[in-house]
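Long-time lurker. I teach an intro course on protein structure, and each term I like to show students one example going from raw sequence to a predicted 3D structure in token notation. This year I'd like something fresh instead of my usual example. Would anyone be willing to generate the tokens for the chain below so I can use it in lecture? Attribution to the forum is fine with me.
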Amino acid sequence: MPEEPQRLQKVIAQAGLASRRGAEEMISQGRVQVNGQIVNTLGVKVTHGDHIQVDGAPIEGREKLVYYLLNKPRGVVTTNDDEKGRKTVLDILADVDQRVYPVGRLDYDTTGALLLTNDGQVANQLMHPKSQVNKTYMAKVKGIATEAQLAPLKKGVVIKGRKTAPARVAITRVDHDKKTSMVRLTIHEGRNHQVKNMLAKVGLPVEKLKREQYAFFDLIGLQPGEYRKLTNAEVKQLQAQDYRMLRRK
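-- Reply from a regular --
Happy to contribute to a lecture. Here you go:
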């Protein structure tokens, strides 16, 4: 079956060079060539046989788009390379033929749900603040958490001069002997160390942190360090931008 032509901006986005809107700007600025000719109008369609260059450099071969869900273990960095020589999430997916990259990041000592893909367009959409993708964490914190203590998180707290968006938060367990609590927190922002900073702000330092859910993905059936391919239905849901955003009344 012959390949169906795709819009040029979509191909550039899938190659991971920019979002689709960013790719459209590249085209409009005359930075893209197809088969040696500058293309500066939108709507042009290309096939696998076309030679595409951006700023004079050919885009990487259009590999088959793949999508994986990883249960990231502790002691692994969310990056392609680590200057300190630590194990990376890509080391775990070493047998994957395509060159994938993580969507967002998790801290070195944070575990849980992490998507990896070579679909730049989907990755950019997921990470864009406007998408408001839900991320649910389970945190083990020092101290006996109370509803009153967590209440400010539901309205947002100021961290480094910026107020966080309202979060969903609940106490799931309290250990009075060890003076620790388990707190579930759902946010849609992605600031650096955000969950740790939010809980520290209300006097509950985090001892352990696990991301239990990302968008509509959970970790059922995945042990730490295990990963799986997304189903066709899950991929279609991502491509349709159906991220089940956190909605508040």
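Some talking points for your students: The longest strand covers residues 206-214. The chain has three domains: 6-58, 67-130+217-239, 134-214.
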